[in-house]
Design brief:
Number of strands: 10
Oligomer: single chain
Helix content: 55-70%
Shape: extended
Strand order of the largest sheet: 1-5-4-2-3
Number of helices: 21
Largest sheet: 5 strands, parallel
Structural class: alpha/beta
Distance between the termini: 24 Å
């Protein structure tokens, strides 16, 4: 599998990256100039030929330039089956073959370059019947396809040096950056694959790593090559299976057809074991978890001490923090599920755990706050990443689901209103901040929800009271134990025993 992945990356990337680097160099040097993306254009033209080409045609008419576009132009949404009538733009429309003729007649290219370019361009460009002449004073606008064609035949750089000015749409720069970024990522993947192969090869030779069994394939096999299914087919002699696929690690154990079982674990548990065995220090653990999170590890759990670690040294600008890559990864990891519509009901324990860890971090932050620090700015960021249970409700039309979401929202608000760890001045600042940042907005946006919070707090507090809680000290002790210990049951229920991670 690693060899196949490496082959694919090698074949797909180098030529595209090289082309993108050439185009980027021309843009950075000023040879290729960017047009304004907010130029006025015809809505009808934009609908048929695309907004970028429509903008350049409009600018060419306004500024006395020419648009270079191969013929014909296919109508958008027709799968290249319908062509657009471009006769209305004939006065400002030319083609790549005209570019070739201009460069050849100007003695800018040699015979071999002309022959090679002509052989290619006549296959991709039918040409326009009456193209305006191109001169050294011409101002040219190239669409993205023209940039590709002229770069491929080696005429782009020559053209830039032969005319007054050459313009492209900003999308050309955007796609160039995307290609280069993808190329860098591919290079990292290639290096990672090579490192993995080297480590595995040494371990295989020493006997520390062995190959798993291979399952018997049947004629109607639909899965193709699948290492996970190979391992699952025979678990004899296996104590634990590591799988980061959420479809494979939902249950605590795997069991094969013969009844052999193995514990199911994830990379996160391996990191914890390395930390426990002193093979990894705390900073190393947080760095490793950050790499997984920033790479898109789905349903990545967060811990209060981890959040506090990343938040502790973050710089501030006025009343806001300057979000570091680590904090941005935490924020994006929780948004990832909603953005991609990937969240499942069985993953609610992960979401509830994240909520509790954020609230726990908030309390810890205020418990060590000082009068002159910027705790409010850091608290604003924590509040901004706190999931809103109403927004995470998967089926708002379902009465039971919506009622559950409302209960969670009320419980979450109630937990925010409990802060007993700090000193009197810390409490005063905390509730002053909470009033402005959370309570007032909640009262305005959802007054009906606010009215239910205090009765909930009262009933929740009564349920927590024990024989020792008939005094103020007993009540305070109960609150401290509840708010600084494990999450209440409403935050820890795990439907169906599902695992997230």
């Amino acid at each position: 599998m690693l060899f196949i992945e490496r082959q694919y990356l090698r074949v797909q990337q180098p030529s595209e990256v090289a082309k993108a680097e050439r185009v980027r160099a021309l843009i950075n040097s000023g040879g290729l100039k960017l047009v304004s993306d907010d130029a006025e254009t015809s809505a009808a033209d934009a609908k048929e030929i695309g907004r970028d080409l429509a903008i350049m045609l409009s600018l060419a008419k306004r500024d006395g330039g020419l648009v270079v576009r191969s013929a014909p132009v296919s109508k958008l949404g027709t799968y290249l089956e319908e062509h657009v009538d471009m006769s209305g733009h004939a006065a400002v429309l030319t083609d790549t073959l005209s570019i070739l003729d201009f460069l050849s007649n100007s003695a800018r290219i040699d015979a071999d370059t002309k022959q090679g370019a002509e052989n290619y361009l006549r296959q991709v460009d039918k040409g326009w019947q009456a193209s305006p002449p191109i001169t050294a004073d011409s101002k040219l606008f190239l669409d993205d396809l023209t940039v590709v064609y002229l770069d491929h035949v080696g005429l782009l750089d020559v053209l830039i040096r032969s005319v007054s000015a050459v313009f492209v749409h900003p999308d050309v720069e955007g796609r160039t950056q995307q290609t280069l970024s993808h190329g860098k990522q591919s290079a990292k993947l290639l290096n990672a694959i090579d490192r993995i192969r080297t480590v595995l090869n040494l371990a295989l030779e020493s006997g520390k790593v062995k190959f798993s069994a291979r399952r018997m394939k049947v004629d109607d096999e639909t899965f193709g090559t699948s290492p996970s299914l190979d391992i699952m087919s025979d678990l004899s002699g296996i104590d634990a299976v590591l799988a980061d696929d959420r479809c494979l690690n939902k249950l605590p154990t795997w069991t094969d057809g013969l009844g052999n079982s193995a514990k199911a674990a994830t990379t996160l548990e391996v990191l914890d074991e390395l930390k426990s065995g002193k093979k990894l220090d705390e900073d190393g653990l947080w760095r490793a978890r950050h790499k997984l999170r920033s790479a898109g590890y789905y349903a990545m759990p967060s811990r209060s001490d981890e959040i506090q670690h990343h938040l502790r040294s973050v710089p501030t600008e006025g009343t806001k923090i300057r979000e570091t890559p680590e904090l941005r990864a935490v924020r994006e990891s929780i948004a990832f599920a909603r953005i991609n519509n990937a969240f499942l009901p069985s993953e609610m324990p992960w979401l509830n755990s994240f909520t509790f860890e954020v609230i726990k971090s908030l309390r810890a932050l205020w418990a060590r706050s000082t009068a002159e620090d910027d705790t409010e700015a850091r608290s604003d960021w924590l509040l901004s990443i706190l999931p809103n249970p109403l927004e995470w409700c998967l089926d708002p039309q379902n009465e039971a689901a919506w009622a559950s979401a409302r209960l969670q929202a009320i419980a979450q608000a109630g937990l925010l209103m409990v802060f007993v760890e700090g000193k009197s001045e810390q409490k005063r600042r905390y509730f002053a901040w909470l009033n402005e940042a959370f309570i007032k907005p909640l009262q305005q946006a959802r007054p009906e929800l606010w009215r239910e919070i205090m009765p909930f707090l009262k009933s929740y507090m009564l349920r927590l009271l024990g024989p020792q809680s008939d005094s103020y000290d007993g009540l305070r002790k109960t609150f401290i134990q509840t708010t600084s210990g494990p999450a209440p049951s409403i935050f820890t229920r795990r439907p169906g025993g599902a695992r997230s991670g």
